[in-house]
Specification:
10-stranded mixed sheet, alpha/beta, single chain, globular, binds 6-O-phosphoryl inosine monophosphate, binds guanosine-5'-diphosphate, binds magnesium ion, 13 helices, 20% strand
Length: 426
């Protein structure tokens, strides 16, 4: 992905999240100088399997496992400082050198205990099936201009005023949801004072840092969280997260110009999954649902919830190619399909008797979709040891070729197992 003409690369989920972004970022970070997260927060769970050890990263960029790669959390992220330090300390305990190479944007907004409380107590969060990490309420406060930013920790008087205002609003939300929980403002302020001592020394203007890095020809990876169909504008609204997960969000969430981005890699599974509520047109029935969930170990990396599984949906990924401007595609988890005798690939949606080949904007249309499928022979051989396209069974190559032509983006990587080395770089 990196070369003389491509220094800044965005990695974005091109389905409903959990596509294997963590794995791809880890693989690509080998040649990166910087890895920067640009949106979301601790709702993300990015798994990196080194072979002997496996890590799930929630807020720290997946480049942290490569010595010498510098990592940053951009202004677009809503940062939970409490769990950030749990994550940092966990990595340090396993011998990963974090300090001195992890930086945080002073403009990033903080997720505070009352955001998590509102998220876990509110009926609307339950209807969407959020992760309960306080993401929606923290972004709400940001947009309503009552959010707390990292840099506010430098100004205790101002911090007290903003936290008091934010807590009052959150308390009203709790009351409206008939929750008996109360917010302890003094407790929040005391916690922030403790955290400030660790957070402020690693906070800076990340937009400026990355601007300078790009000017000095550094290779920069911008790591997205969630997936394009969970984007607040382009996803299956209202069953979405509260940030712009798509590539356009990368420039804003890091603080660089959009023209700085050279390539956009979309990560997709060889099938589809979704965790949480909302439409999933190609969702499997039983017994395939249980079988593929087991084969793919499809349980949420953050909440442990079972993921809903379905066939690959070309309309979804063609749409993601368009809204992200994908220049490249990584297809992961091909090995999960190794034992299936037959595969289906969705190429059209039948809605009220009419066939569509573009993804609709309206969730109510999605709820009555009858997917149109093309059927493919399974390869029924292990792909786990393949390291080149030629080593893949012919049936697997036919399946991948069809995906490539339908979604209108070239496949640059195929992943055939959880480990770093289980990848085909085309
Ligand atoms: P992310 O949120 O996009 O980083 O993805 P997650 O880490 O939440 O979920 C992807 C899961 O699939 C993780 O458990 C990965 O270890 C696993 N994974 C990634 N690539 C492959 C692959 O090619 N084959 C298999 N079997 N598992 C994979
Ligand atoms: P990664 O980065 C999959 C889903 C939740 C819920 C919706 C809104 O690991 O791919 P939120 O807590 O963000 O307000 O929940 O979004 N969701 C994810 N699904 N992968 C994720 O992250 C997700 N982060 C949020 O399940 O449906
Ligand atoms: Mg995940």
């Amino acid at each position: 992905m990196f070369g003389p003409d491509s220094r800044v690369v965005v990695v974005v989920g091109a389905q409903w999240g959990d596509e294997g972004k963590g794995k791809l970022v880890d693989v690509l970070a080998e040649r990166a100088d910087w890895v920067v997260r640009y949106q979301g927060g601790a709702n993300a769970g990015h798994t990196v399997d080194l072979g002997d050890r496996s890590f799930v990263l929630h807020q720290i960029p997946s480049g942290i496992l490569h010595e010498g790669v510098r990592c940053a959390i951009g202004n677009g992220v809503v940062l939970d400082p409490d769990t950030l330090f749990e994550e940092i300390d966990g990595l340090i305990q396993t011998g990963i050198d974090v300090m001195g190479r992890l930086y945080v944007s002073e403009r990033a907004h903080l997720v505070l205990p009352y955001h998590k409380l509102v998220d876990s107590e509110s009926a609307s969060s339950k209807a969407i099936g959020t992760t309960g990490r306080g993401i929606g309420p923290a972004y709400e406060d940001k947009v309503a201009r009552r959010g707390v930013r990292v840099l506010d920790l430098r100004h205790p008087k101002r911090l007290r005023e903003i936290v008091t205002k934010g807590a009052e609003y959150a308390q009203m939300r709790l009351a409206r949801n008939a929750s008996g929980k109360t917010i302890d403002v003094e407790g929040v302020l005391a916690q922030l004072e403790r955290i400030a001592a660790r957070l402020l020394p690693i906070s800076e203007d990340i937009g400026l840092t990355i601007h300078r890095a790009i000017k000095s020809n550094a290779s920069v990876l911008l790591e997205g969280a969630q997936g394009s169909l969970l984007d607040i504008d382009h996803g299956t609204y209202p069953f979405v997260t509260s940030s712009n997960t798509t590539a356009g969000g990368a420039a804003i969430g890091v603080g660089i110009g959009p023209g700085a981005v050279d390539r956009v890699l979309g990560v997709v599974k060889a099938y589809t999954t979704r965790v949480g509520n909302g439409p999933l047109p190609t969702e499997f029935g039983e017994p395939l649902q249980t079988e593929v969930r087991k084969l793919g170990n499809e349980y949420g990396a953050t909440t442990g919830r079972p993921r809903r599984c379905g066939w690959f949906d070309a309309l979804v990924v063609k749409y993601a190619t368009r809204v992200n401007g994908l220049t490249d595609l990584a297809v992961t988890k091909l090995d999960v399909l190794d034992t299936l005798p037959e595969l289906q690939l969705c190429t059209g949606y039948e809605i009220d008797g009419e066939v569509h080949d573009e993804f609709p904007s309206d969730v109510s249309a999605l709820e009555c979709v009858k997917p149109r499928y093309e059927t493919f022979a399974g390869w029924q051989k292990s792909t786990a040891t393949a390291r080149s396209l030629e080593e893949l069974p012919t049936a697997a190559r036919i399946y991948l070729d069809r995906i490539e032509s339908l979604v209108e983006a070239p496949i640059t990587y195929v992943s055939v197992g959880t480990r770093r080395d289980q990848i085909i770089g085309l």
